[in-house]
Structure formats: C-alpha cells, structure tokens
Amino acid sequence: MYDPLLDPHPGQGQPLPNSYWADHSGTAPLDDGQLQQDLTVDVAIIGAGYTGLSCAYHLATEHGVKAVVLEANQTAWGCSGRNAGFVLKSSGRKPYSVMRSQYGEAAMHGIYNEFCAGLETVKALIATGIDCDQQDAGYLRMAHKPSMIKTLQQQASLLQKEFGYQVELFNRDELHQKFVADQHAYAALRFYDGFGVNPLKLAWGYQQRARQAGAKIYSASPVTQWQQDGEHQLLITPQALVRAKKVVIASNGYTPKLLHSGVQERTLPVLSQIIVTEPLSDAQLAACNFLTSQVIMDTRALKYYYRKLPDNRILFGGRGAITGKGADDPYFARRLLDVLKLSFPALQQLRYDYSWSGWICMTLDDIPHLAQADDKGQVLYSMGYCGSGLTFSVQAGKRLAERLMGLPLPQIPLYQTALPKFPLPALRRLGQWGYFHYGMVKDRWF
Ligand SMILES: Cc1cc2nc3c(=O)[nH]c(=O)nc-3n(C[C@H](O)[C@H](O)[C@H](O)COP(=O)(O)OP(=O)(O)OC[C@H]3O[C@@H](n4cnc5c(N)ncnc54)[C@H](O)[C@@H]3O)c2cc1C
Questions:
Q1: Among 26, 214, 319, 381, which residue carries the largest CB count within 10 Å?
Q2: Beta bridge pairs of residue 355
C-alpha cells in the first residue's frame, strides 16, 4: 500500500480500494480524465477528496473562479472514499476543555461555531440533491469502562454550559434497551445532530456539483514535480503541466513527503482500519438488541467506532498497521472482528466480507490547520483532521476559497497558525508505536 512517508506520490490512476463503499455505490460519475495538455490557470488544487472538491465547488459558485483539480488516482481514492461515514460536528482530537485552557474562552467558542458551520455546509450540500444513503440522526459516545462515565458527565456539562448544546446521557440499561446491547458500553452520551452516510457517494456528489459549476477534475494526474516559474507555480504531471497563480494542497494524510517544503514533516499519517461484516440475520440483531443505526464511537484513547449499515451489516473500525507495508496483513481485520465479538458475544459465528484501511492525518497539536505553505501566500493548504474530517474538510474547502480571494477568515487557531513541525520527524513512527502501547495500557487499566 502507498506509504506517504516513503513513496514519492500515491501512484497513477489506481482503482478504488476493494471496500464496501466501492461495491455499494453504483458507477462513478464522469470526471475530466487524465490531464493531457499544458494549462495556465488561476487556481490549481492537488487532491480530489472532500477538501479539494469543496474548495473547487465554492470557488466556482461563490467567487466565479473555475479551478483545476489534479488527482493522482481518482476522486475519493484517499480518505474521502474509505472513511466510516460519520458526519460529526467536530474535527481534530483536542477536547474543548483543553482548547479553553490553551487558547482561551473566545477561541474555543470560535472553533465550536466553525464546527457548527461545517455541519450546516455539509447539510446544505446534501440538500442540493446528493443521494448518500443518509441514516438516522444521532451519535452515541460510549463509555468503554465505568470510570469513563464521569468523563461523559463532564463533557455533557461543558457542552451545556459553554454552548447551550444539550446532549442526553443514558445509563447502561437505557442504552442496552433503547439502542444496542454492547457489553463493553457502560453509558453513552447522545449527540442529536450526527449521522451516517455513504462517504463515497457523498464525494461523488461533490464532484458532480463542482464540475457542474465549471471546475475541472483531472484523474490519473499525480503531481510528480513542483517548480517555481517566476510568479507561477509549475505542477508537473506525467503527460502535461499546469502553470498556476495559486495552488491549494488538499492531499491531507496522502501528502507525499517531498511534495512541498511548507507541509513537510508537519503531519503523521496513521492507518485506520475498517471491516464490514456479512449482513446480520433478524435473530442476530435481536440477540444484540441492535435497534439503532446511529453512529457510535467509544471513549478509548485508541478508539473503536461502528454503525449498522442500511443492509444490516456492521461497519467496525479501529487502528490499523503502522506502515503501508503492513496494511494488508489480515491480522488487523481479524483483531477488529475479535473486539466486535467481545462487545456482542452472540455474534461468535459472524464473518466479515470487506476489510480496508486508509491514512488519517495526525498533527502535533491535535487540530487541523488551514495556512499558507510559502512566504507569498501563493500556496495554501488545509489538513490534519486527525481522523475526523468528513464535515470540517468541506468547511475548510469553503474557507480556502475565501482565503484565495483575499477575504478574512474567522480569527481562530485553525486558521491563524501553520501546522507545527514534528520534533525529530524521522522518529514519528517510533513515537506512534510508543503511543499505541501507552494507549493500550491506559484503555485497559486507567
Ligand atoms: C478508515 C477511516 C475512517 C474514517 N472515518 C471518518 C468518519 O467517520 N468521520 C470523519 O469525520 N472522518 C473520518 N475519517 C477521516 C476523513 O475521511 C478525512 O479527514 C477526509 O476524508 C479528508 O479529506 P481530504 O479531501 O482532505 O483528503 P483525502 O480524501 O485523503 O484526499 C487526498 C487526495 O490527494 C491525492 N493526492 C495525494 N498526493 C497527490 C499528488 N502528488 N498529486 C495528485 N493527487 C494527490 C490522493 O490520491 C487523495 O485522493 C476517516 C478516515 C479513515 C482513513
């Protein structure tokens, strides 16, 4: 599997991974094919995931700029076509309580407002008629051990006090009776406004909207070299080059290590793994009281997440291998299935039909950043969603378009500071390995 810390680019024209989404989304909509002729443009965007597509769409619809998107493989080949489809009002990994102590009250509120705006942006785009198999509203955050109930209570009270955001807290019995009888769940907070979608259909919908508005999406067109030509950026692809006044890097966890010095050594790509089981029978669903199709995540440092799909399969995810080389080792899928069976002992015979993984993009300070990668502001980026970017990447794409137009953005840390560099970047994977071991101990014992 492509490894962003080792490989020069993510390949060229590769098919989508063999995922449940690739099998259950119909035919991909038309794109503009491989770039064959040199172009001179105002804005070029690298990467056709949610960030790049949203930027192209908003540039065209709100600012009249028809951008060119260069995608190494095909639309949503990266995280946007591989994720779990949890639409949540959040991004990054930093709790609000930590934001408050690090950035202050006003910045914390600003970030919350921006996450709310992100959810509205996604809902408005879906409302244009994107069919993405939206499921029942609700996100359950489950305490994976009794000591985490207090953490959930504290979170509920902060959300209510600071933002007037009302969540419901269910005890173990209520949770098991009303939603699902997960034996590892001791309580749950229910956020009323999250929901599950088919993430690939969503990305394809964005692509269609961006092209209808005048953007060009070139697939099988990896940027393999990047040069400066006076005031222009020269993006070189295998068949042709693009001369652009401005460039947006929208490659998130798939950013090759030498793409641009402004983003180098500032992210840590981490594999997240998903399995999708065979469909559950009515008897199996009843044995787990699996009533809900709301999206579910636990309170572990090394989180597990799951949801019931429209055809009664369970999508179950968690951490994957550390390197691209290890990504296809079936051990990681089997481990997820074992954990699922611990939560649902009645499903001992259950098998999985699909397994795949993707690179989420971690940052040193646990928040995403939209910033410029060069001194002149001709190269912008947004990345670092830390595994929670389905909603915020779309908002970031909209903000990137505004920033390209010279418009001011909200004064919040997400938009004010560049991605911090990792100290000792060559040791990032060793640090990740250490964190995995710390997480395993913490999740079990503390
Ligand atoms: C297993 C998994 C589960 C997840 N689940 C959720 C979830 O449920 N909810 C949630 O909010 N978030 C989730 N995420 C994270 C979310 O999917 C991402 O934050 C989001 O899709 C990022 O979108 P993006 O457009 O920034 O990047 P991507 O979708 O990764 O797109 C980047 C694109 O850049 C292209 N590219 C890279 N280099 C080049 C180059 N040199 N030239 C041309 N193209 C290039 C790649 O081919 C790729 O297609 C999950 C991620 C994974 C891996």
A1: 381
A2: 275
